[in-house]
């Protein structure tokens, strides 16, 4: 159960591009949106690949278990039947998008289709356990998908993963850690509405519900559309789209508070600590600059330019 946004995202990867991946490195044997074949020929291609074995299975979307799986079927098979069959001889599995990784939108309360993630199916023993990478995001960054595929074909293994099976190279920091508005966060300058003076000046969107502090993703550095921008740079807070259960997390426009990020005092203390770290970093950087200048003889009267 998916919206094809994850495929749309992958087609926008520039490094490597989808063309490089499927013409130079991978044989794309089955994919509803990108394959040339249809109907019986498409299903025959899938079964042939499964019989040969040794393939990488990329799953997009959640799997509905309610009503005997009738909420989503392909070629007369429920998604669970098709996944169980397709995973049989795979080397490894990549769950692309928050739906495949965590259940996503279809799994949001009240979850009428009984949607579950790939990992839940492995935990329940409904499908065979395989090495698994989760690439959450609604959708994931194009480069998160492309880079994981490129890493696997280059090194024959997945990159380092965190406890939720996410590559640490992409999901190792929060959006907040690298946010261009973080200076305003530490300065206590927060936009109060989407069109107030603070918002127009680029102040922090924390009070407008930004979930950047609790969301692990590389949007602030990798960005979207070949590094053009990302939600916060475009004026909207992060809605936490790469975190488990983000649809049910209490409101996109409600500020994080006690219980989901700590107390207001804790946030203030974190801001002070962050400011202190910032000062320390500035001092270290100044010392480093001085030593480089001394080393390379570029000082003017012993002071920094
Ligand atoms: Fe950026 Fe959001 Fe953190 Fe503010 S709260 S610094 S807008 S990530
Ligand atoms: Fe999603 Fe937040 Fe990035 S909403 S796209 S994780 S900035």
Description:
The chain starts with a helix and ends in a 9-residue tail after the last helix. The strands form three sheets. A three-stranded parallel beta sheet has the order 1-5-7. The chain is mainly α and 305 residues long. The chain has twelve helices and seven strands. The chain has helices at 5-10, 18-25, 39-52, 79-87, 97-102, 118-123, 142-155, 168-171, 182-187, 197-200, 219-222, 264-296, and strands spanning 55-60, 63-64, 73-74, 77-78, 90-96, 115-116, 132-135. Iron/sulfur cluster (SF4) is lined by residues 175-176, 179, 181-182, 185, 204-206, 210, 212-213, 232, 237-238.
Determine Rg (CA atoms, Å): 23 Å
The residue fraction in helices comes out at 25-40%
* Number of strand elements: 7
Main sheet specs = 3 strands, parallel
Order of helices and strands: HHHEEEEHEHEHEHHHHHH
- How far apart are the first and last residues' alpha carbons, in Å? 59 Å
Tell me, briefly, the overall form.
globular
Number of helices: 12
- Small-molecule binders: iron/sulfur cluster, FE3-S4 cluster
What structural category do the secondary elements indicate? Answer: mainly alpha
Low-pLDDT stretches: 262-266, 268-305
Mean pLDDT: 87
| Strand arrangement across the biggest beta sheet | 1-5-7
Question: Percent of residues in beta strands?
Answer: 5-15%
Give a quick rundown of the structure:
The model is unreliable at 262-266 and 268-305 (pLDDT under 50). This protein starts with a helix and ends in a 9-residue tail after the last helix. With 305 residues, the chain is mainly alpha-helical.
